[in-house]
Amino acid sequence: MTIDLGEIMRPARWILLDFDGPVCSAFAGYPAPEVAGTLREQAHATGVVVPDAVMRENDPMRVLSGLYQVAPQWHADFEAALTQAEIASVAAASPTPGVTPMLGVCRERGLPVAIVSNNSPEAIRAFVAAHHLDVLVDAVIGRDKVSPELMKPNPYLLRQALAELGGTPDESVMVGDSTTDIEAARAAGTMAVGYANRPGKAERWRELKPDAIIGHMGELAAALRA
Length: 226
Fold this sequence. Notes:
Blueprint lengths: L4 H5 L4 E4 L14 H14 L6 H4 L4 H11 L4 H16 L8 H11 L3 E4 L4 H10 L8 E3 L14 H10 L6 E5 L2 H10 L2 E5 L5 H5 L6 E3 L3 H8 L1
């Protein structure tokens, strides 16, 4: 059963946001299935035998993880290719409706914000700088060439963010639009808010039992103001 959003946001002192979804559509300019295909093509070109499960995967992060399992020696190359694709893609992205006012309210209230994402920090920083959101974001924690096992749902990145902000899990809220965000929040000990940005997602997410579910990032700004 979800909790009233206001009850979650009132005691929150640190805000953690996923990038792809809550902040922007990270693959707006370079669709995720195409990026996944590009990574597979690079793997084939290096002689890597790509598993069937990876051949069917459209999520670039899962393709990166799958390739790491079979060819860790090429990980740096695949990582670099994905980073360049993300940087190119976010150049065509726009801020998610409601996120800019939400960041503004956090700044007004003195609530530090970190973007915590499996996307590359280079792409995240390029986006927030291009849209003048860098002055509203206190920390950017991306995959930064870590082993794929440390990406969400592993809580490693959330713990890195809290360490950089000087935050504590019990007074922090993680906002994300994927199951890995909710699972990482649970493992890190933070509150979890699910951003249901597609039809039917809220209903599917109730099985994961996030602390709250929102359909628009503006709901967070309203809860913070209240």
